[in-house]
Amino acid sequence: MLRTSVFPSRYVQGAGALATLDDELARFGTSAACLVDDKVRAMLDPLHTNAQRVELNVRTLEAACTDRTIADTAAWIRETGAQMVVSFGGGKVVDVGRAAADDLRLPFVCVPTIAASDAPCSALSVIYDENGRVLRDRFVRRNPDLVLVDSRIVAQAPVRFFIAGIGDALSTWYEAQACHRAYAPNLCGGRATALAFAAAKLCLDTLLAHAAQAVDDCRAHLVTPDLEATLEATVLLSGIGFESGGVAAAHAIHHGLAELPAAHALLHGEKVAVGTLASLFLWAVPDDERKRIFRFCRDIGLPTRLAAINVDVDDTAALMMVAQRACRAGEIIHNEPYPVTPERVVAALQAMDRYAARLVD
To answer: Which domains, and CATH codes, for the chain?
Structure first.
């Protein structure tokens, strides 16, 4: 199997980075189609005022990333005659923009205003149906041409988003490690490079060293070295690590949890964190490692019990629905270095919940 890795063409992060956007976009042309969600549209007002080199055409987008939304958005972009696509906001706006830009063969620029997942740097859009269930992963032809992260804006967002991004990034090392052991493919068509594997490990090490303080800083809307380090881990290191390292049980269990209507109000990273914790019971992980990760999740506010994600630990029918979705043929859970069945997933979820219940300092 060939070794492969993919990366965004350019990554920019820091307080006030948004002020450089006009110069950054001028690398790709003079007209941009900008997708925003309603919560951040006002953020574009000063950009309109200060823009000197690039015209900004703006469309508010509230819909989920469905095939219909992508087609409608691509039609609007085509009408504007824009030379690039820019997404401002969270994961759904980013995924729609990424897919629409790919359909039109235009450069794609990602400006995340929250750090709730590791999606910004990737070539992956998650496609949902109209009921909020995951349909499939869509891989576009190339990673973003630019990812621009203004840490001051991220720090102003609700801290729940920042915590969810940590939950998503927490899975990166464990899933890359599983793929490495199983000789399973990554998401770009090959085996992980040493650089991707190192990025995944550095992601985990950075979170363990800085995330607790970073969450407290974000809660106070402070941009600090701990917040910057954690932000880089959740967006860049995790983005490289998951895509070029590979994914496995944690994200498969997320897909299963997304089948439950009660879990639809949860953020992606909150469900992935539960998937990561459950994955620690799919095989005999040393107890000190489990304690380290459970305490980490508890300390920063990630869910460690099923009740925290609106799932009843005694509802075996619901848990089996999650497990069957996670274990369906061709699913990424089979990248684990051992056979995984729905019954094992149900047992892991219940064992995870019981472990968290009795864990004390």
So the answer is: 3-156 (3.40.50.1970), 159-358 (1.20.1090.10)
